[in-house]
Amino acid sequence: MKKIMLIIMDGLGDRPNDKLGGKTPLESAYIPNMNRLVENGIGGMMYSVDQGIVCGSDTSHLSILGYDPVKYYTGRGPFEAMGLGIMVRQSDVSFRANFATRDENNIIIDRRAGRLDEDPGDLCKALSMEIDGVEFIVKNGVEHRAALVMRGSNLSDKISDSDPHSVGKAPGTIVPKAPEGKFTADVLNKFLAKSRDILQNHPFNKKRISEGKLPANEILVRGAGMTPNIDPFQSMYGMTGGYAVGIPMIRGLANLIGLQEIKVQGMTGSIDTNYKGKIKAAVDGLAKRDFVLVNVKAPDVAAHDKNPILKREVLERIDEAFYPLLDILEDTVVVITGDHSTSSESGEHTGDPVPIAIASNEIRTNGCTRFDEKNCGISSFRIYSRSVMQYALQLSDRAEKYGA
Ligand code: ZN
Ligand code: ZN
What is the Å distance from ligand 2's center to 304 Cα? Predict the structure, then answer.
């Protein structure tokens, strides 16, 4: 039996770009190691979730790992919360949250509290409380971003947002979307009222006001979601697994399915990450495990910044880091792909399929010699994200026989 390495380059696919002479970043990149991998395996295209679906990273990662997002995607809240290090439990309700600025007329004047250049950790601590038997846990992320988790019994995610989603409006009162959401809405409204007092009078904000900065005097919540009741990876596949992932949401997902964290020095979840260190740690991590998941976020970040030249550059840096993968093909099935395409022209995710290469020794190769949209597109190999794990399992001689 072989081991499996699954490397997801976030936002990998792209569209032809004028700044690259009508090529995609991948088509114009110098990527000898990716090309060697595709030569040593099967090259083709992967549909993220389904044909033409414009996926988020969360739904696509769920699907690639073999978990149907229709069943398990219960909103971004739980994924964000887990990614910020909150050990979310089954009956919790989680939200995405923003520290925002509210004026004396109760109007939101900045949804990001001036993008909050200081660590609001003390604010989060001050907001951790218990009301009517429900525990509130707040943890901050990057800048103004945070997560809120409600922990207690009889909680429901069938409630509205307090986030008005634009400036110039008052924060919304939480209302139930179904009868079972009433208790949760009531307790959350009490929390939000209390939090306004606490935030308004907190030394953190008094200092900001004295410095002429916008105070973080409101916490806006959105996207309530119950933690999905999800089967552990090990019981699904009979493999022990680890992950080398920088971005919180995917770290949260990996935690939830019981993958173990592989620590990487200098991993940032962005452009300045330690590419070589990450791939090396992932390869080393395979010594103790059957499966490793890697996510490299940088291509998606560059595409969101509408910077195809930077995207090409990070793809080349990733490729440089890939050289150890060529040495493990004897006992490992290496899968390299993306979670979705992200257009460097529009800066948005698209529903275009994504190149995929599945490489290992002694498997059928299909003559694909270059890892990009065009060459993988010419190949007849097409796979849906939900079948990627199963395909890798059978190539690693781990799949169970269907029938006699
Ligand atoms: Zn993504
Ligand atoms: Zn993205």
Answer: 7
CA distance 247 to 223: 19
Rounded Cα–Cα distance for residues 238 and 230 (Å):
15
Q: Tokens for 271?
A: 């452009």
pLDDT-derived band of residue 211, with 50, 70 and 90 as boundaries? Answer: very high
366 three-class SS: coil
- Collect residues with CB below 5 Å from ion ligand 1: 10, 57, 300, 339
- Check residues 77 and 125 and name the one with the higher pLDDT: 125
Q: Quote the distance between the C-alpha of residue 126 and its chain's center.
A: 28
pLDDT at 277: 95
pLDDT at position 270, please?
83
> How many angstroms is it from 300 CA to the middle of ligand 1?
6
Q: Which amino acid is at 389?
A: M
In the chain, domain spans:
3-73+229-395, 80-225
In this predicted model, what pLDDT tens digit does every residue of 350-367 receive, in sequence order? 999 999 999 999 999 999
Q: How far is the CA of 398 from the centre of ligand 2 (A)?
A: 33
- CA of 348 from ligand 2 middle (Å) equals 7
- Cα-to-centroid distance, 260 and ligand 2 (Å): 24
Q: Does residue 272 have a pLDDT over 90?
A: no
Buried b (16+ CB within 10 A) or exposed e, 110-132: bbbbbebebebeebbebbeeebe
C-alpha to C-alpha distance for 144 and 193, rounded to whole angstroms: 20
Q: Ligand 2 mean position to 133 CA, how many Å? A: 37
The domain defined by 3-73+229-395 folds into Alkaline Phosphatase, subunit A (3.40.720)
> CA–CA separation, 31 vs 25, rounded Å?
11
Residue 251 has which token pair? 């770290």
Where does residue 347 fall: left (phi above 0), alpha (psi -120 to 50 degrees), or beta otherwise?
A: left
φ/ψ (deg, to 5) at 183 = -60, -45
Residue 364: per-residue pLDDT: 94
Coil vs helix vs strand at 189: helix
- Residue whose entry in the numeric block shows the structure tokens 């330690």: 274
